[in-house]
Amino acid sequence: MPTIEEELGRRSLLYSLLMPVMSQFVPGLDKGKGMYFLFIKSEAKTPSGLVARPVLTSYYKSTHFKDRPYDPYTNYTSPNETILCPDSYQSMYSQMLCGLCQHKEVLRVGAVFASGFIRAIKFLEKHWRLLCNDIRTGTIDSQITDQSVREAVMKILKPDPKLADFIEAECSKDSWQGIITRLWPNTKYVDVIVTGTMSQYIPTLDYYTNGLPLVCTMYASSECYFGVNLNPLCKPSEVSYTLIPTMAYFEFLPVQRNNGVNSSISVPKTLNEKEQQELVDLVDVKLGQEYELVVTTYSGLYRYRVGDVLRVAGFKNNAPQFNFICRKNVVLCIDSDKTDEVELQNAVKNAVNHFLPFDATLAEYTSYADTTTIPGHYVLYWELSLNGTTPIPPSVFEDCCLTIEESLNSVYRQGRVCDKSIGPLEIKIVEPGTFDKLMDYAISLGASINQYKTPRCVKFAPIVELLNSRAVSSFFSPKCPKWFPGHKQWINMN
Predict the structure, then answer these.
(1) What positions does the domain GH3 C-terminal occupy (predicted)?
(2) Is the dihedral of CA 299, 300, 303, 308 positive or negative?
């Protein structure tokens, strides 16, 4: 996405609105710190020499973030050096260590995405012994080799055997339920994105936080930043965002359900002439109507389809407020990745070429974003037609897994290779007739037999259980797919 220096200032202004809004609902936030797990990602250069990097990396590396004036509302436990460390392990370790050292000062915790915060908890679950040793002795583990990180952490880290004993006692217990409120007892809320596909992580967050409020403070993407949540303590299912009209010029394309919000046809980012005539201005949207968001930005995007579907939830005075409904065409998402139906179809098509020597074909398939594992991973359910007599060896299915991963976009592959935010892709082979059973089940719930088509992604728990009950074998990608920092990439934040 194109951006300009001026845009960073505009986005910084939106960040400055968040805590004044929060302080209306949660008093005393200026009396402590926020423990946020923030990270940069790899960057590259375009052929013309421009820097290409994720939007948050651009912000964290800017003077707007690095040289921000002291503000008690944006006082973090993580020093800038730990956030700007390019090594994901060293960054996570040092941020967690600083957060533990200042555990009594922490009033709020968070990350950008819910998945990222859960990943931090799992990191603590795996490395708490090393962290306790550092706190007990006042030294930093030898695996942290970044000198600037070590120097920044040593300004915070002091020998504290009592704190180490406390952390060890809590982390040694059989259950990690409520571990956030146990280790950081003054925490008032969790600040993460839990709308859209991130809602799948809500039960896990509730478990680890003892039901602390889950707060979605803002709505933003790589294209531009949009607005804020003026009622941040509402339930995640009720979150609505008030768009700030000075962030961009916003227009809205009415969405008709029969046009298929989840259509398998890839939607272009530009509007045709008919769609341009249908556009509605911000002041003309109707309560309860769903719209696709279209933006014209200061950075050069003109009537660009963001790909988000919003519903008008109400008004703040005369300003409309929107629920985020879904991403158009996206079927799978674990972290910042977004895989649509067409991309998945092409990846599967590439993979089934491995079956040619065995006279086998793929009869049907669907997919599922499994977030019960940390990190989460894609699961594909395959029903095969076996015409040959030669059995297909496990290595072929593993090759299929890897081929699919190689065929997916660079954001997915970066999550697998660099960020470790996505686990190895899994293929489950199901019994013959499984997809007939799936159709029968859908029809029993009221689907039309004439209009039924196999869903390319499933989320409904009984359907996932049906598929899992008929799985006869399971295979995982044997290694990470290829990924190079030189590939152009971007991240949408919702």
Answers:
(1) 343-460
(2) negative
Residues 289 and 339 in one domain: no
Q: Name the residue type at position 329.
A: N
Together in a domain, 23 and 102: yes
Domain that holds residue 340: 333-476
Within a domain: residue 209? yes
d(CA 210, CA 329): 34
Q: Output 12 or 167, whichever has higher pLDDT.
A: 167
pTM value surpassing 0.85: no
pLDDT at 492 over 50: no
**Banded model confidence at residue 268, pLDDT cuts 50, 70, 90:** low
The answer to whether residue 481 sits within a structural domain is: no
Is 322 in contact with 310 (CB distance < 8 Å)? yes
Check the CA dihedral 294-296-299-304 and report its sign: positive
| Domain-ending residue, one of 181, 198, 223 | 223
pLDDT at residue 158, rounded to an integer:
93
Based on its alpha-carbon atoms, the radius of gyration of the chain, rounded to whole angstroms, reads 24
Tens digits of residue pLDDT in 417-452: 887 889 999 999 999 989 888 888 887 876 655 556
> Of 208, 226, 209, which Cα lies nearest the Cα of 217?
226
Q: Do 260 and 303 belong together in one domain? A: yes
Distance (Å, rounded) from C-alpha 298 to C-alpha 293?
16
What angle, rounded to 10 degrees, do the helices at 161-171 and 114-137 form?
A: 140
Residue 382 CA to residue 365 CA, distance in Å, equals: 5
Q: How far apart (Å, rounded) are the C-alpha atoms in residues 362 and 349? A: 9
Q: How far apart are the first and last CA of the chain?
A: 15
Q: Is the pLDDT of residue 489 over 60?
A: no
- State the DSSP string of 197-234: GGGGGHHHHHHHHTS--EE--EEE-SS-EEEE-SSTTS
Give domain status of residue 228, yes or no.
no
Strand runs labelled E in 328-483: 330-332, 339-340, 360-370, 377-386, 426-430, 471-476
Q: If you ran DSSP here, which 8-state letter would residue 239 be given?
A: -
* Helix, strand, coil share (%) of the chain residues, nearest 5: 40, 20, 40
8 A C-beta contact, residue 180 and residue 109: yes
Of 42, 193, 180, the C-alpha closest to 122 is 180
Please check whether residues 375 and 442 belong to one and the same domain: yes
